């Protein structure tokens, strides 16, 4: 059976999808986001297969909808600050992913998400999200994803580590055909683009009041802004992310540019966010968090200069532009104020570059195709985390011997 989208109707029948079509969900998405859904994606949303597991689900996520509190932007921003629920909203709106089901894998909830932006006329693909990472799932088509998960459901006998298909009559499945090479080649950069931008959920950390050190390595750079800027006028996820990022970081010049570009964006949600950030200033909590971030950036640059002078290893110090130009301007003003107040950590000639430490939360298997392969059991994962902590502890002791605290 072909999995290139041409036989999606037959695969939906096989999986027990409802016979009656309901176009409302697909129509609403196209209307609100201003996107033309891929043919296969629309057909699935018109006849959605219920993908679930009785034990799956995150109690920290009360609202599992795509829109969340939108179009109420103020309420939605508050929602973004609710840790795991906000994290899922970041994934959905900043990467352009739509949730279609949850399963359990070794105790973790795995969320299957449709990519809303097509990479061919027929296909947009499926990705997974599990609170730590995102990656590809199903070789670039909903058809491939469903055939793969149906086979797993039969193998697991509906026990665990798979979706439950309540209306699927168990029988031998037709052998799926191999995905044509041209589709695979086109799909790869489509999902990798999203994998490379999984750091965009720093916004949730910012709004939750997390320590600035946790987000310094993933704050947007000038290079990223220049590369993604054209998308602010075209796609929902680019418009949503950059408007909010520049607003939170105080990048007034870049925010004004993003607002101008967003006027051409067809997404109604982007228009609502653009209007909000134009009229609304950061509240007291958000301003305090921005000050903490700017101080951490300035302190990191000062540390970088001192270490460079003494010719110590720069493995764990800052290197490279940390935030966009508008925030650097704010940082300059903030640094001058701190110097006037006698803060010895800030220097007038502090360097503007240094290398960012790799996040401990970055997983070496991030972004791989889930396919029939599975994540290691949690006990093994904890062992790996413990080993990483031991390495960090050794590095910290080494740094302390040099008299530096990074």
Write a brief structural summary.
With 406 residues, the chain is mainly alpha-helical.
Strand-helix topology:
Layout: H1 8-15, H2 24-33, H3 39-46, H4 73-80, H5 84-95, E1 97-105, E2 108-115, E3 126-129, E4 134-136, H6 142-155, H7 181-196, H8 202-208, H9 222-228, H10 236-248, H11 252-262, H12 268-279, H13 284-309, H14 325-340, H15 378-401
Antiparallel strand pairs: 1-2, 2-3, 3-4
Report what the structure shows.
This protein has 406 residues and is mainly alpha-helical. It has 2 domains: 8-65 and 91-188, SMI1/KNR4-like, CATH 3.40.1580; 199-340, no CATH class. The chain has 15 helices and 4 strands. Strand 1 and strand 2 (108-115) form a beta hairpin. The longest helix has 26 residues, at 284-309. It is globular.
Alpha-carbon distance between the two ends: 56 Å
- Major β-sheet strand ordering: 1-2-3-4
CATH architecture of the largest domain: 3-Layer(aba) Sandwich
User: Roughly what fraction of the amino acids lie in strands?
Assistant: 5-15%
Helix content: 40-55%
Averaged pLDDT, please?
A: 79
How many helical stretches? 15
CATH class of the largest domain: Alpha Beta
Q: Helices and strands: which structural class? A: mainly alpha
Largest sheet: 4 strands, antiparallel
CATH topology type of the largest domain:
SMI1/KNR4-like
Q: How many beta-strand elements?
A: 4
The domain count comes to 2
Principal-axes geometry comes out as: globular
């Amino acid at each position: 059976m072909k999995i290139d989208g041409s036989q999606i109707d037959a695969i939906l029948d096989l999986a027990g999808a409802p016979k009656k079509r309901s176009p409302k969900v697909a129509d609403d998405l196209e209307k609100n986001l201003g996107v033309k859904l891929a043919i296969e994606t629309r057909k699935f949303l018109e006849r959605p297969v219920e993908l679930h597991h009785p034990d799956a689900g995150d109690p920290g996520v009360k609202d599992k909808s795509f829109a969340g509190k939108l179009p109420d932007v103020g309420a939605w921003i508050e929602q973004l600050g609710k840790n795991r629920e906000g994290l899922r909203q970041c994934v959905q709106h900043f990467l352009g992913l739509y949730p279609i089901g949850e399963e359990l894998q070794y105790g973790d909830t795995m969320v299957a998400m449709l990519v809303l932006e097509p990479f061919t006329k027929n296909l947009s693909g499926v990705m997974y999200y599990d609170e730590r990472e995102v990656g590809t799932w199903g070789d670039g088509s909903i058809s491939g994803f469903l055939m793969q998960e149906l086979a797993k459901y039969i193998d697991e006998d509906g026990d665990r580590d798979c979706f439950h298909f309540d209306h699927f009559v168990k029988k031998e499945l037709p052998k799926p055909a191999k995905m044509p090479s041209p589709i695979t080649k086109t799909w790869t950069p489509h999902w990798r683009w999203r994998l490379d931008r999984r750091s965009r959920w720093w916004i949730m950390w910012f709004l939750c009041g997390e320590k600035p050190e946790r987000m310094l390595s993933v704050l947007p750079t000038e290079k990223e802004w220049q590369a993604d800027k054209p998308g602010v006028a075209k796609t929902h996820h680019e418009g949503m992310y950059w408007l909010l990022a520049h607003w939170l970081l105080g990048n007034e010049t870049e925010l004004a540019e993003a607002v101008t570009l967003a006027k051409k964006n067809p997404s109604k949600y982007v228009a609502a966010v653009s209007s909000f950030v134009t009229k609304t200033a950061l509240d007291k909590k958000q301003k305090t968090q921005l000050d903490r971030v700017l101080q951490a950036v300035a302190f990191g640059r000062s540390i970088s200069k001192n270490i460079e002078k003494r010719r110590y290893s720069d493995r764990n110090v800052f290197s490279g532009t940390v935030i966009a130009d508008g925030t650097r301007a704010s940082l300059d003003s903030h640094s001058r104020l701190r110097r006037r107040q006698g803060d010895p950590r800030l220097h007038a000639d502090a360097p503007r570059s240094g290398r960012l430490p790799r996040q401990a939360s970055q997983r070496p298997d991030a972004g791989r195709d889930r396919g029939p392969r599975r994540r290691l059991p949690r006990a093994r994962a904890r062992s790996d985390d413990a080993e990483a902590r031991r390495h960090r502890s050794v590095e910290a002791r080494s740094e302390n011997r040099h008299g530096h605290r990074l």
